[in-house]
Design a protein that fits this description.
The chain starts with a helix and ends in a 6-residue tail after the last strand. A 7-stranded mixed β-sheet has the order 1-6-8-11-10-12-13. It has a 7-stranded mixed β-sheet with strand order 2-3-4-14-9-5-7. The longest helix is centred in the N-terminal third of the chain and has 18 residues. It has one domain: CNF1/YfiH-like putative cysteine hydrolases (4-Layer Sandwich). The protein contains 6 helices and 14 strands. It is α/β, with parallel strands linked by helices.
Length: about 260
């Protein structure tokens, strides 16, 4: 195995989560987002912007690109625009690590890092956690939720792909549990942000609400939801359900700054 990969990757099978502590408060905010005006549009969330140790973005629908193809081809067509957004948000020289996203609950862990390949895709997992600075975590979504997790005290971060099946399997709770086990994080200190995702009445289940419930059960106190439905706004977002599978992908990216501030 590539020594860089061996150094930075380990997989953890899903474990039955145990509540860490009872929550004392829940902070759930609405869609007050910062939206770019550049050619390749993206948005940022106030709750994450307030945490100076990290940076992030959520890429929106890219205008003028034909996305009526299979996923591999679509991601190739969107790559230039996503690179533009990474450059605009300070990620241009950061290695980007993504997950294969199989609608499961396994988590890749980056707990050591050396300069080398400019990122890679970790197989058989739907989330990545890390305590390393200058490393970008990426998740692609088109109705599923990208769940950003930041522990500003340790510090440590996680980014998770959670749709209906992944939520049922507890992928977000597994990521939080792994951050506790691997990095010593306390859920009470974590900030969780849910991205735009499909919601009722466009989808039969409200898995975003279930993600919030699972986070509360683990003792997460600071939970923020965009309350935005991807299927309701096809001018800004891709929707796998609304577009019958012929659509693009939004890219969510999260990383710890190389130093304590921006």
């Amino acid at each position: 195995m590539d020594p860089v990969v061996a150094a930075c990757l380990c997989f953890e099978a899903a474990k039955a989560p145990r509540p860490h502590r009872a929550p004392s408060a829940d902070l759930i905010s609405g869609p007050q987002i910062r939206i770019s005006t550049m050619r390749s549009p993206f948005e940022q969330f106030p709750a994450l912007n307030a945490i100076k140790i990290c940076r992030h973005f959520f890429a929106q629908r890219i205008p003028g690109i034909d996305v009526s193809h299979e996923k591999t081809e679509v991601l190739k067509r969107l790559d230039a625009a996503h690179r533009e957004i990474r450059g605009a948000t300070g990620f241009s020289d950061w290695p980007l690590f993504t997950a294969e996203q199989i609608h499961g609950n396994e988590i890749a862990v980056i707990d050591s890092y050396s300069r080398g390949p400019m990122g890679r895709e970790f197989p058989r997992c739907d989330g990545i956690i890390s305590n390393q600075r200058g490393v970008a975590l990426g998740i692609y979504v088109a109705d599923c939720c990208a769940v950003y997790i930041v522990d500003p005290n340790t510090p440590a971060i996680g980014l998770v792909h959670s749709g209906r099946k992944g939520t049922e399997l507890g992928v977000v709770t597994n990521a939080i549990s792994q951050m506790v086990e691997r990095f010593g994080s306390d859920p009470a200190n974590m900030v969780v942000q849910l991205s735009p995702c499909i919601r009722p009445p466009h989808y039969e289940l409200d898995f975003a609400a279930e993600i919030i419930r699972q986070c509360r059960a683990l003792g997460v106190e600071h939970i923020h939801d965009s309350f935005t439905c991807t299927a309701c706004d096809l001018d800004r977002y891709y929707s796998y359900r609304a577009e019958k599978g012929k659509t693009g992908r939004m890219l969510a990216v999260l990383g710890l700054n190389a130093t304590g501030g921006n």
